[in-house]
Automatic annotation (TrEMBL):
Known EC number: 2.7.1.148
Organism placement in taxonomy: Bacteria, Bacillati, Actinomycetota, Actinomycetes, Propionibacteriales
Enzyme class (EC, first level): transferase
Residues given in the record as ATP binding sites: 103-113
GO molecular function: 4-(cytidine 5'-diphospho)-2-C-methyl-D-erythritol kinase activity
Keywords of this entry: ATP-binding, Isoprene biosynthesis, Kinase, Nucleotide-binding, Transferase
Gene symbol of the encoding locus: ispE
Domain GHMP kinase C-terminal per the UniProt entry, residue ranges: 210-286
Organism in which the protein naturally occurs: Nocardioides vastitatis
Domain (GHMP kinase N-terminal): residue spans on this chain: 75-153
Alphabetized HAMAP family for the sequence: IspE
Protein name: 4-diphosphocytidyl-2-C-methyl-D-erythritol kinase
Length: 305
């Protein structure tokens, strides 16, 4: 997250990555309704770019129309901007423009990426010099996945996902990201998980074997250890995903995974050529897909002028 302090600028663009969960262990909801998580996040190379400029009032726009992204005060990017201004006790506002590549309601935390990118972009726009720890704390008030979008790389997430700490990951892999035309509501998937899992633990365990495979750099072992407690619930809510998953499993990938709460599906490959061939196969079946390397950096400034 830390970057050289560059001074104020009239326009700043920050790029923030999508996330996937190599492991998503979900526990029984707490009295506040939040689910305890034990998750291993990885930032992957699908990005939203957020550009901010000083303005008399808050507003948000998209560089190209995308269904499902609110263009009013409920957009999480505006909520992030307002939170930063409040934190510093300053009076300021901005025009926020989003170039969206991360699928909406795809289980890849696109909204969280936009929130993280906005925090960083406005911090640089106004030269607020917010310490990293304060940015992470502010991020956690906006959503469970927002701190990780700042951190990037590969990280363990605990609490309800907001407590992040980097883990050693010596793998360098390629994901075939299989997109779905319809989104899946994250709260609906968690609600169905609760129905299916009355005996979920209070503290989901840390996936030690996966952490070791990442530290050793064994992508094939990582592929065998991918897991997602929300998968059964997502399959129930979207039975069409089962057919897609079955086809992906015949294609020789090192692993197949549901991204977060879905419906995006992922295939793991340890080299780009294998990923390219698999993507061509997926496209030939009529599914939209993208290629993304992992792990990649968290939110970072790309244009500063
Ligand atoms: P997660 O995996 O974190 O639950 P997701 O990737 O499934 O998220 P998002 O694309 O982050 O889903 O969007 C979730 C909801 O947030 C959508 O219903 C959308 O209307 C709302 N939203 C608010 N701001 C944004 C934004 N900047 N980009 C996308 N969605 C946004």
């Amino acid at each position: 997250m830390s970057e050289a302090k560059l001074g104020p600028a009239p326009r700043v663009t920050v790029r923030a990555p999508a996330k996937i969960n190599l492991h998503l262990g979900v526990g029984r909801p707490r009295p506040d309704g939040m689910h305890p998580l034990s998750t291993v996040y990885q930032a992957v190379g699908l990005y939203d770019d957020i550009t901010v400029t000083d303005a008399p009032d808050w507003s948000v726009g998209l560089t190209a129309a995308v269904d499902g992204v609110p263009l009013d005060d409920t957009n999480i990017a505006i909520r992030a901007g307002r939170a930063l201004v409040k934190h510093h006790g300053i009076s300021a506002a901005a025009r926020i423009t989003i170039a969206k590549c991360i699928p909406v309601m795809g289980g890849m935390a696109g909204g969280s990426a936009d929130a993280a990118a906005t925090l960083l972009a406005l911090d640089r726009l106004w030269d607020l010099q917010t310490p990293d720890e304060e940015l992470l704390q502010l991020a956690s008030t906006l959503g469970s996945d927002v701190p990780f979008a700042l951190l990037g790389g590969t990280a363990m997430g605990t609490g309800h996902g907001q407590l992040v700490s980097a883990v050693t990951d010596r793998t360098s892999v390629w994901w075939v990201v299989v997109l779905s035309d319809d989104g899946l509501s994250t709260p609906a998937v968690y609600r169905h998980f609760d129905e299916l899992s009355p005996d979920a633990p209070n503290e989901p365990p840390v996936p030690e074997e996966l952490l070791e495979a990442l530290a050793e750099g064994y992508a094939d072992e990582v592929g065998d250890l991918l897991s997602n407690d929300l998968w059964e619930a997502a399959r129930d809510l979207r039975p069409d995903l089962v057919d897609v998953e079955t086809k992906l499993r015949t294609m020789g990938a090192d692993g197949v995974l549901l991204s977060g709460s879905g419906p995006t599906l992922l295939m793991l490959h340890d080299n780009v050529d294998a990923a390219r061939s698999a993507a061509a196969e997926v496209a030939a079946l009529g599914y939209r897909c993208a290629l993304a390397p992992g792990p990649v950096a968290g939110a970072h400034v790309v244009t500063y002028a």
